[in-house]
Design goal:
Chain A: It comes from Fonticella tunisiensis. The complex is a heterodimer of chains A (297) and B (325). By secondary structure, chain A is an all-alpha fold. Chain A is built from twelve helices and no strands. Chain B has ten helices and twelve strands. The chains are: A mainly alpha (297), B alpha/beta (325). The A-B interface holds A 2-4, 6-7, 10-11, 15-16, 18, 21, 125, 187-189, 191-199, 207, 210-211 and B 53, 55, 59, 80-81, 84-89, 92-93, 95-97, 99-106, 114-115, 118-119, 145, 148-150, 153-157, 163, 166-167, 183-185.
């Protein structure tokens, strides 16, 4: 029955146009306005991160104390902070930190998560048990609390913040990967891949993983915004990025004492974080819809 | 002899005990021969084929005894690596479900190329060229274009052709076809069988055909192995089995084929059901369903008896001289 229906579809549809799945996903993504807004913001942020130093009107790290806590004006469009540094320049300078943290932390967590998750899902049994219990232990702690604990063990610094944030998010990726692998590994094409002489690594990484990439990619884009938020949180607490390096979270943290007199100090870094997180979320949402053939019109 | 399976035993550990899915199976395949293993669901025919490929999922399954001699070498004694070099190269396999046996994210060209790159050290371009040749060989129109298609763009019959192209790309000496036509509709079934036979003659591949469809067996095989509950119950040439089945189970199977030239109100059916694999009867596994069952059948497992140059697992032939039953 199933087959006949499929074959009828083939006959009625005639010869389908040959197209790559990536092109399909792209054309689907272009239709989604929210996702395109998200993507444009991400592109702009990346450009700012790359060429920011040409855009900064002032040195982000040196201020003129006499000009501290100034309201936004034509000289300082976002105003100045408590040390008289130009907030606009500092936000531009902080972009590369936030993006770098977001992208590297997710890349590390994703790689580790894919390795743990696919071994657990593919081999099952004891390997699965050990890996997933380890992941459960990490998940049992609130992620920010655990990140703070790692930071206090590792010491301060941006690289350590990246490591801490990636470790605490590994379980999320591992679980998604494991679940997806469980759902496809019983398919006959996996057995067919074995039957033409593939080894386990070839089967996992070449035949199974490409079939489960969509939930993983989506989780990763959404994960970037979480990672940026967590770096900001660590920065706000004085961990992570060290002064005078500008970072949105630590700018918020440093400005909280002046909130009533000079709200612009926290307002602009806050807006920067919100926009970035929103952009990645919008893009991630759109990507999820585009990757799911059932949602395609 | 290309393949000799001797006393093969494969077990599965399941909740509540151990299932002997394959319990002492012997058979052999000569070069250029088509041998069919016939049996109903759960008779151990697919497990036999997976055991030969070394693809029994472990745990829960395991080959516990026997030998699988391929060109005189025991496959069960080979390392994982050696087996990977044999699979897809010297022995390959096609599966039952053409809809799911191709990887949906790769073009069919890439999937056929894979084995060629792996086993024949071909470059990507050479492999793609050979893939196009293979697609042409299995009768896919405009193969240069089709090679770039994804599996979802092909129909079931086309996909099974692609599977055959994939399996035969490296020129294997043995092709194991596990119910290759079961999921296809009848006209396509005939085409696929025809194609397999044609390619067998052209490439000199031996075929081990796993099926429950006696029509398919009659059409393509040289010899037949009938299995029931993990054991071989009868072996013989196609002519022998269809003209004069010895085992009551084979007899029943043949009687249950609907025939168009005779008028029946009801189809023949073998009474009863297959025994629970966790709770096998003490004697012959078929005893409860057999219309010739005797006292001894319920007490002892019958041996495989030599009778008129054929082998059959039934007490009736044990003490009788040839031609007297």
């Amino acid at each position: 029955m199933e087959l006949n229906r499929e074959e009828n579809v083939m006959l009625e549809g005639g010869v389908e146009k040959t197209s790559s799945p990536w092109r399909n996903i792209w054309s689907e993504l272009v239709k989604n306005k929210a996702a395109m807004v998200g993507l444009s913001i991400i592109v702009i942020l990346i450009l700012i991160a790359l060429f920011g130093k040409y855009l900064m009107p002032y040195d982000p790290n040196t201020g003129v104390l006499a000009e501290s806590l100034q309201k936004p004006s034509s000289a300082h469009i976002f105003g100045t902070d408590e040390q008289g540094r130009d907030i606009f320049s500092r936000i531009i300078d902080g972009t590369k930190i936030s993006l770098r943290v977001g992208i590297t932390a997710v890349a590390i967590a994703l790689t580790a998560g894919i390795i743990f998750g696919s071994f657990a899902g593919y081999y099952g049994g004891k390997i699965d048990m050990y890996i997933m219990r380890l992941m459960d232990i990490i998940l049992a702690f609130p992620s920010l609390l655990l990140a703070i604990a790692f930071m206090s063990a590792l010491g301060k610094g941006i690289d350590k913040a990246i490591i801490a944030i990636s470790i605490v998010t590994i379980p999320e990726y591992a679980r998604i990967v494991r679940g997806s692998i469980l759902s496809v590994k019983e398919n006959e094409y996996v057995q067919a891949a074995k039957a033409i002489g593939n080894n386990d690594m070839g089967i996992i990484f070449k035949h199974i993983l490409p079939n489960v990439m969509s939930p993983i990619i989506v989780r990763a884009t959404l994960g970037i915004s979480t990672a940026i938020l967590e770096t900001s949180a660590l920065g706000f607490l004085g961990l992570g990025i060290q002064p005078p390096q500008a970072e949105w979270g630590s700018m918020l943290g440093a400005g909280r004492g002046y909130f009533y007199n000079a709200p612009h100090i926290v307002l602009f870094p806050g807006i920067a974080i919100t926009i970035t997180v929103l952009a990645f979320n919008l893009f991630g949402d759109g990507l999820r819809d585009a990757l799911d053939p059932k949602l395609r019109k | 002899m290309l393949l000799q399976v001797k006393n093969l035993k494969t077990q599965f550990k399941v909740k509540g005990g151990v299932v002997n899915a394959v319990d002492g199976v012997d058979f052999e395949i000569d070069r250029g021969e088509v041998v069919s293993i016939v049996g109903e669901s759960g008779s151990g025919k697919s497990v036999t084929s997976l055991s030969i490929m070394g693809l029994i999922p472990n745990p829960p399954g395991k080959v516990i005894d026997g030998e699988i001699l391929f060109k005189g070498e025991d496959l069960l004694k080979k390392t994982k690596k050696e087996l990977q070099n044999i699979r897809g190269n010297e022995i390959s396999m096609i599966f039952q479900e053409p809809m799911t046996s191709l990887n949906p994210v790769f073009t069919i060209g890439k999937q056929i190329s894979e084995a060629l790159i792996k086993h024949k050290n071909m470059s990507r371009e050479e492999a793609l060229k050979k893939s196009i040749e293979m697609l042409e060989l299995v009768g896919i129109p405009s193969p240069e274009k089709r090679v770039k298609d994804y599996p979802h763009q092909l129909s079931g019959g086309m996909r099974q052709r692609v599977m055959i192209a994939m399996a035969l790309a490296c020129g294997p000496e043995l092709l194991i076809a596990d119910e290759p036509t079961t999921a296809l509709d009848v006209t396509i079934q005939a085409q696929i069988l025809d194609l397999m036979l044609k390619l067998k003659d052209k490439l000199g591949t031996s075929i081990l055909l796993i099926t429950h469809d006696l029509g398919v067996v009659a059409e393509v095989s040289d010899r037949v192995v009938v299995m029931y509950c993990g054991k071989v119950v009868e072996k013989g040439t196609v002519m022998e089995i269809f003209e004069r089945p010895l085992h009551p189970y084979t007899e029943g199977l043949l009687l249950s084929i609907p025939r168009v030239d005779e008028k029946h109100d009801k189809l023949f059916m073998i009474p009863g059901v297959v025994p629970n694999p966790l709770n096998m009867p003490k004697g012959c596994a078929f005893a409860d369903r057999c219309h010739r069952c005797e006292e001894i059948c319920k007490k002892e497992v019958p041996p495989l008896v030599e009778y008129e140059g054929r082998q059959v697992r039934c007490f009736r032939y044990l003490n009788h001289k040839e031609g007297k039953v």
